[in-house]
Design a protein that fits this description.
Helix content of chain B: 40-55%
Oligomer: heterotrimer
Largest sheet of chain A: 9 strands, mixed
Number of helices of chain B: 18
Structural class of chain A: alpha/beta
Distance between the termini of chain A: 106 Å
Number of strands of chain A: 13
Structural class of chain B: alpha+beta
Distance between the termini of chain B: 112 Å
Chains: A alpha/beta (about 400), B alpha+beta (about 550), C mainly alpha (about 375)
Low-confidence stretches of chain A: 65-70, 216-220
Number of domains of chain B: 3
Number of helices of chain A: 14
Strand order of the largest sheet of chain B: 1-2-4-5-3
Largest sheet of chain B: 5 strands, antiparallel
């Protein structure tokens, strides 16, 4: 009997002690402020850093499903400053009634100014805190602060971060003229030898004018729109320059990260009339050699495309085979130009964003010991880069390549 | 010295002799029982009658019939029975009719001078009575036992013995469909309250002389008959011995249901999990017997106990074997998943909403957050509240008269649930979770297992509410360790899985085709391991193509 | 003397138990071998140490065959005499206790670091220790049965952790091999060798093995399986993280966080947590059981059940007191920390015992047959 009652007593004690003290890490889901995007900028005080977060308002976000379109904003943008990022995060507590929760964060936006000065002071928190995700996209806002980038809207989506994420993933599939960089890659590039980081380049566009009309919606209502326009090139943690869209695609060609896209070539024998070829499948390979004591890189790219559409109805009198050949030759030229432009830019910036150095480290570790000393400033700039492109045209959709319309 | 000891011994013996209560008033039950046991029948009919009347307290359902036997002899004979427990037609044709009829007109030689009373008694037993079974007894205790079990008892003047004749017949439920273990395909009969009918049901499935029954009388007052059934030669003799020992060691006043026996003989009395299977399906019991298990049939209840059982027996329905094996396997798998869900779903919900908000997709998390924004309670209170109200609903639904049952479910499920959500008392996500859990928890074919899962959910929710997923995991680990340490009549509870017995995996989460079930469970049967010929895969002759 | 431990385990259960005690290391220590500089070449170090361990496994089995039915604690007393034998036994018991404490500490630290930062460490330690004491109290058979269930589950989870991040893996990350020379690799392989020393717990399990003749095969299978797991893990971590892998504190956790996998549950980082909690639990319990058995045998106690909770309490306090920070716990096996001590406690001691046993045997045979009963 005593044994039993003692057992019961022990169990009771455990249960009670758990109930009394056992809520250490508990946080109610409704008492959290979900951070969907964060912008990091320089504060006015030069020692300080400014964080701007986009917080979700759950009730406004889910209200649409019940009572029609709510006009309330689904997010709340709020800024805070601090001496370090973590300090700034904690300082949010004086203005945000809920605890900031970072696991659902999708974007980190850096202002150009802070990126130029270097991110070494602000990056650590994003790698160290277990709440932070490694898959968040890293964006640098060209010509503006990150905070301003968070203030624009993508009208199709309720929250900006969702919109930007959508734009990034759709451009990866459809355009490949930008880079898709998460914090994971950024961190890896920072710590790797012979590989420099790169980030997504964002811009705020005043509407109109718009040099590229693709995708602009409801122009009358919005005055500013976000754009993903290429890539931001880093050297270490410092922003050193920008890659434009074709150069960004050149980067993707080299890295084998082309998800899809369009190559427009001029029609054979006809100026200013274009043919669009859709990229279907690509393969790339970087070969490293040491020729006469000097490093040399050969980039081999294979690209298969489908004939997508064309301007003007045109029949090549020479027949189909020469036409295909000529289109393929032009495709190869376009790809080669893009790659060479990207390499040229990177060499100008002295930043080996392609990881050529890493390739030497892997395949020629002995020579790399000699090369790594001043790789970015000398070795990479003087690197001999050879480009071999093979382009193929595979299909032409539902109709023949040559359709004699109108004739 | 020796003398002194002898005197002491005598005094002790005298003390041991039973008291002779002339009056039953003021005497305790055990003393009365002891008294009755000590009494033997005497030759004098009147005295016997008085003795029986005294023991039964002249109860109103005791019926006496004084007869005289033999046209010439005119020996006084007394026939007793309990009114309502006998079939009067059998009584008339088998007992009273022959005594009064021509067969009792004994010949000159037989009557009187030649035959003594005890020889006449034997003649009565062997030639006159027409009942199917006639037992002779000399003790009052036995006589009364026969009487209260629906036999007619015959006493003859001058003979200190009685004859108990089988004339049972009372109002009884017919064999009906099972109520708690319904099957779409398979036999549709269930056990009833009568032990004899139940053994018959088994006998009709297993028509083998090696199906053996053994009777035990349990309960000092109720004298409930308990029968154990097994297949001799298949079952391990040590197991039968163990069952015998456990049942005969029961010392209790009353057994009303097999549940009483279950609690008195089970291996892990503090365990939330049942270690004895109860079923009302004869086919299930028969299958268990053929796997070398022992069935315990209790008089007065349609639920038969089966020992030993393992955890997976509770996730098994008889129908799994009747439907084709794909169906059987899928259903088994679903049951296993449902068991796990029923145990962990509410606690996981609590853990995720309170501790691990990063685990769910963003949109789902935000949607839960939005629903929870108006709810005044913390998630754990909310979950406990809903679970408790579900338990209330379930209990009310069972106890209410059948006509009102559906009304309760409408009020409870529809009105209460809907109103609670729209009033912001609970979040609809949690209502969904609790409802899904409720459905999942009833998937176990054995109700007693459902109940244990119901109960275990509450500590799991508490653990989740205090320690998050770590708590859930520790809870599951504790349950696992417990399950690993439990045995049922010597067989480890998780048997085919832990300890791993690969030859039994054919009948666990999956159910392989019938022609693959070549062996009996190794953990139960050692002597007759092979069940069937191993080459029984149907191989229809190849069809010749006909034009 | 009464039987301390009546349980028997089958060969399968032996492997399950022995491999499960390695899971924690496979998930936490082995992929990077914290505190060494081998970087992405760790897998080579692990392969080396796996084959370094094999001779010792044969040695352990050999000892078990020379003294059938006896644990290392018992035959060390036979070989080295009651006093030296007891001393050696004591060292081993301290090693077991320390291993048990290490397991629970690392698991608790992982929880505090990753998902529940505000909860005090001692809560995790207390609950896990209570459970494992309870399990150890129920005896080896219950433990083995639990291992039977846990083993396939953990293996399944490990496969998930390994397969799901394959999308982010880059095979080139393994190159170049030994860029910074072989010295860091050898250093790492020594650490890894020290980690493998934990397998000495097998010498406590051998006497309870159903199939004593199979001991050699089972032990070698265990080592190879564990080595394989370690190697695969460290390769996958290297493939996914490349040069950054050296800075990871919980490689398996980071591995699962790198999974970008559109599914009902987007985030699968619970998987390694479950796997290493189970692994840590089994490891803690096995070593706790071994320590209990060792103490009971060392002091000729008549039963060991009542030791469970006191020894559990000892383990819990060890785990708090032995390591002041997470780095202590994780870099336990490096040369700077306890690595050399661990190697002495396991390999050196067993080598000494083996030599002693051989000498005893030759002395006995030279004395002639009459010494034998």
């Amino acid at each position: 009997m005593t044994g039993n009652s003692r057992k019961v007593l022990v169990v009771m004690l455990i249960v009670i002690s758990m109930l009394l003290g056992g809520c250490w890490s508990r946080r109610d889901v409704e008492r959290l402020a979900f951070v969907l995007a964060v912008a990091v900028d320089k504060a006015q005080d030069p020692d300080k850093v400014q964080l701007t977060v986009e917080l979700a308002r759950p009730s406004a976000l889910t209200a649409t499903s019940q009572g029609g379109g709510s006009l309330e904003s689904a997010v709340w943008r709020v800024s805070s400053t601090g001496y370090t990022v973590f300090d700034a995060i904690r300082n949010f507590a004086s203005q945000v009634p809920r605890q900031l929760f970072w696991s659902h964060n999708r974007l980190i936006v850096f202002g150009e100014e802070i990126a130029r000065e270097g991110l070494e002071d602000v990056l650590d928190a994003f790698f160290r805190d277990p709440e932070m995700r490694r898959s968040v996209k890293v964006i640098v806002c060209k010509g503006d602060t990150g905070a301003n980038f968070l203030l624009v809207d993508v009208p199709l989506e309720r929250v900006l971060s969702g919109g930007i994420q959508g734009i990034i993933s759709s451009s990866v599939e459809k355009l490949s003229t930008m880079v898709d960089i998460g914090l994971n890659y950024f961190g890896r590039a920072l710590s790797a030898d012979g590989l420099e980081p790169i980030a997504v380049r964002g811009e705020i566009i005043d509407l109109p004018p718009d040099e590229d009309p693709r995708g602009s919606l409801e122009r009358t209502k919005i005055s500013k729109a976000p754009r993903i326009t290429g890539a931001a090139v880093f050297k270490g943690t410092k922003l050193v320059g920008w890659l434009d869209k074709p150069e960004a695609r050149g980067f993707n060609w080299i890295k084998g990260k082309i998800g899809g896209g369009v190559i427009t070539v001029e029609k054979p024998n006809e100026r200013n009339k274009f043919i669009a070829v859709e990229i279907v499948r690509t393969r790339s390979n970087i070969k490293t050699e040491i020729v006469g004591g000097k490093p040399k890189v050969t980039i081999k790219v294979e690209c298969m495309g489908n004939f997508a559409d064309r301007e003007n109805v045109y029949v090549n009198p020479e027949g189909v085979a020469p036409t295909v050949l000529s289109i393929e030759r032009q495709m190869a030229a376009v790809i080669r130009n893009e790659i060479e432009a990207a390499v040229k830019k990177a060499k100008e910036f002295g930043s080996d964003i392609f990881g050529f150095g890493e390739a030497f480290y892997r395949f020629h570790p002995k020579e790399w010991k000699r090369l790594r000393e001043d790789w970015n400033d000398k070795g990479f700039r003087e690197l001999q880069v050879e480009v071999e492109v093979k382009a193929m045209l595979r299909r032409s959709g539902l109709i023949e390549l040559e359709v004699p319309l109108g004739k | 010295m020796v003398l002194l000891l002898e005197r002491l011994w005598q005094r002790l013996r005298r003390k041991k002799e039973t008291p002779q209560p002339r009056d039953f008033d003021g005497v305790s039950l055990s003393e009365l029982l002891e008294f009755i046991q000590s009494q033997d029948l005497v030759s004098d009919l009147k005295e016997n009658e008085a003795m029986i009347k005294q023991a039964l307290g002249d109860s109103s359902d005791l019926t006496l019939r004084h007869l005289r036997f033999g046209r010439e002899l005119q020996i006084p004979v007394l026939v007793l029975h309990i009114d309502g427990m006998v079939d009067s037609e059998t009584l008339m044709n088998g007992l009273i009719g022959p005594i009064l009829g021509k067969s009792s007109w004994l010949s000159e030689e037989e009557s009187g001078q030649r035959l003594s009373r005890s020889e006449l008694f034997l003649l009565m037993k062997e030639q006159i009575l027409r009942n199917s079974s006639v037992h002779e007894t000399a003790s009052l205790d036995e006589l009364l036992d026969y009487l209260v079990r629906g036999n007619a008892v015959l006493l003859m003047d001058g003979v200190p013995k009685a004859l108990a004749c089988e004339v049972k017949g009372w109002a009884e439920r017919n064999v009906q469909q099972p109520t708690t273990e319904v099957a779409v395909r398979g036999p549709q009969n269930a056990f009833i309250e009568n032990r004899r009918v139940n053994t018959t049901l088994l006998r009709r499935i297993i028509a083998s002389p090696l199906l053996w029954f053994e009777d035990f009388k349990v309960g000092a007052v109720t004298n409930t008959m308990v029968t154990i059934a097994y297949i001799k030669g298949l079952v391990e003799d040590s197991l039968v011995e163990e069952v015998r020992e456990r049942i005969s060691s029961i010392e209790i006043d009353a057994i009303f249901e097999s549940g009483h026996i279950e609690e008195l003989i089970e291996d892990a009395p503090y365990s939330p999990f049942p270690t004895i299977l109860r079923t009302e399906r004869p086919d299930k019991v028969a299958a268990a017997l053929l796997e070398g298990r022992v069935a315990i049939i209790t008089d007065g209840t349609p639920y038969v106990l089966v020992v030993p059982v393992t955890f997976q027996s509770f996730l098994t329905a008889a129908e799994d074997y009747y439907e084709r094996f794909f169906t059987g396997s899928v259903v088994r798998f679903i049951r296993a998943v449902a068991f796990f869900l029923a145990l962990t779903l509410p606690s996981t919900y609590v853990a995720v909403t309170n501790f691990h908000q990063e685990l769910l997709p963003t949109s789902l998390t935000l949607s839960i957050a939005a629903q929870r924004e108006g709810v005044p309670f913390v998630a754990i209170v909310e979950a406990l509240f809903l679970e408790v109200s579900f338990e209330l609903l379930r209990e009310a639904g069972i106890r209410l008269p059948k006509a009102i049952g559906p009304a309760i479910s409408i009020v409870g499920a529809l009105i209460l649930g809907e109103a609670a959500v729209s009033a912001g008392l609970v979040s609809s996500a949690l209502v969904i979770v609790v409802a899904a859990t409720a459905i999942a928890s009833f998937i176990s074919p054995i109700y007693s297992m459902s109940i244990s899962v119901h109960l275990l959910r509450f500590p799991m929710i508490l653990l989740a509410g205090t320690l998050g997923l770590f708590g859930v995991m520790m809870g599951l680990a504790a349950i696992l360790i417990h399950l690993c340490s439990v045995r049922s009549f010597g067989v480890p509870y998780l048997t085919p899985l832990a300890p791993a017995v690969p030859s039994e995996w054919k009948d666990t989460v999956v159910r392989v085709p019938m022609w693959k079930m070549d062996t009996r469970p190794k953990s139960l049967v050692k002597k007759e391991f092979i069940r069937q010929s191993p080459r029984q895969r149907p191989q229809p002759p190849e069809q010749e193509d006909t034009e | 003397m009464a039987v301390l431990e009546g349980g028997r385990i089958s060969g399968k259960q032996f492997i399950a138990l022995a491999v499960l005690t390695r899971i924690l290391a496979a998930l936490l220590e082995a992929p990077t071998i914290s505190g060494t500089n081998a970087g992405h070449d760790v897998w080579i170090a692990i392969l080396i140490s796996t084959f370094l361990t094999l001779p010792w496994v044969f040695l352990w089995v050999q000892l078990a065959k020379m003294y059938p039915g006896k644990t290392i604690i018992q035959y060390s007393m036979d070989i080295l005499g009651p006093w030296f034998g007891r001393l050696v036994g004591l060292v081993l018991i301290v090693y077991f206790l320390q291993q048990s404490a290490h397991a629970v500490r690392v698991a608790a630290d992982a929880y505090v670091t990753t998902i529940m930062p505000e909860t005090p460490l001692i809560v995790f330690i207390a609950i896990m220790t209570a459970l494992s004491s309870n399990c150890a109290r129920s005896g080896l058979e219950v433990l083995a049965r639990a291992a039977d269930i846990v083993f396939p589950l953990v293996m399944f989870l490990l496969v998930l952790i390994l397969v799901l991040p394959i999308g982010t893996a880059d095979p080139l990350n393994l190159l170049p091999v030994a860029a910074y020379g072989w010295q860091p690799i050898f250093e790492a392989s020594l650490s890894s060798f020290a980690i493998f020393g934990e397998l000495i717990v097998m010498t406590m399990l051998f006497p309870y093995l159903d199939e004593a003749k199979e001991a050699n095969r089972l032990a070698v299978t265990t080592v190879l399986l564990a080595g394989f797991l370690f190697t695969v893990f460290s390769i996958v971590v290297a493939l996914v993280f490349g040069p950054a892998m050296g800075s990871l504190i919980f490689p398996a956790f980071s591995l699962s966080r790198s999974i970008e996998f559109a599914f009902v549950v987007e985030r699968v980082e619970v998987i390694p947590l479950v796997a290493w909690t189970l692994g840590a639990g089994v490891k803690q319990t096995v070593f706790l059981w071994a320590a209990m058995l060792g103490i009971a045998q060392l002091f000729n106690l008549s039963e060991m059940k009542s030791l469970a909770y006191p020894v559990g309490a000892l383990v819990a306090s060890f785990s708090v007191w032995l390591f002041s920070t997470i780095f202590d716990a994780l870099q336990f096996y490096t040369a700077a920390e306890f690595g050399p001590l661990a190697i002495i406690a396991t390999y050196v001691i067993s080598l000494v015992l083996y030599i002693g046993a051989l000498i005893r045997r030759s002395v006995r045979s030279s004395r002639g047959e009459e010494a034998r009963p």
